[in-house]
Amino acid sequence: MMKMRIWLVCLMSFLILGSMAVAAAAPTVQLVQEFDLVADKYVNPIDASFFEEAGPGRLEFYNLKNLYGSGAQLIVYVNTDSGKDWLTFSYSGDMIEVKLLNRHFSLLTTRAYAVTKTIPLTVVVQDGKLTVSVGSNSRTVKDVNSFTGSLTTQSIAGKVKVYQFVD
Q1: What angle do CA 165, 162, 29 make, to 5 degrees?
Q2: Which of 24, 64, 87, 116 is the most exposed place for a label (fewest CB within 10 A)?
Q3: What pLDDT is attached to residue 6?
């Protein structure tokens, strides 16, 4: 009888811990918007909004085209522990360089033709971290809390998918 009680207590403990682990599972992403990134060839800034309010999420960029040449860039605005910052995508020849403006170093550099619909340039802000990736290449930095919900393009056109995290 005593062994049965011990076994029952262990089983109940296991079930309770298991249910807590399921409750703490990572949120899933939900597609909330997909839009064309419209740009012109004269480096005029064109703004776009993708969230109604600042928050974490995931952006996927693909079919990116440089309409101008050297100097074309795309800016995604983020909130960090030290204030607002710019995540910039800059073209140099056939390369795209992604960097946080206030960090003064490149997060990722890739060939523009490597960014496709099946292998997008992905930016994720979650749990105080920003991760930029293309295929198997990625870089993560800390102290980035949210997207502000807007971006500016200067002569970079393409497609954007916007995801938010849901529980």
Answers
A1: 25
A2: 24
A3: 52
Cα–Cα distances in angstroms (integers) from residue 140 to residues 6, 10, 39, in the given order: 46, 40, 28
Query: Would residue 128 count as lying in a domain?
Result: yes
Give the number of domains in the chain.
Answer: 1
pLDDT tens digit string along 60-109?
Answer: 999 999 998 777 899 999 999 999 999 999 988 889 999 999 988 899 99
CATH code assigned at 84: 2.60.120.560
Contact by Cβ (8 Å): 40, 132: no
- Cα separation, 3 vs 1, whole angstroms: 5
**Residue 80 domain boundaries:** 27-166
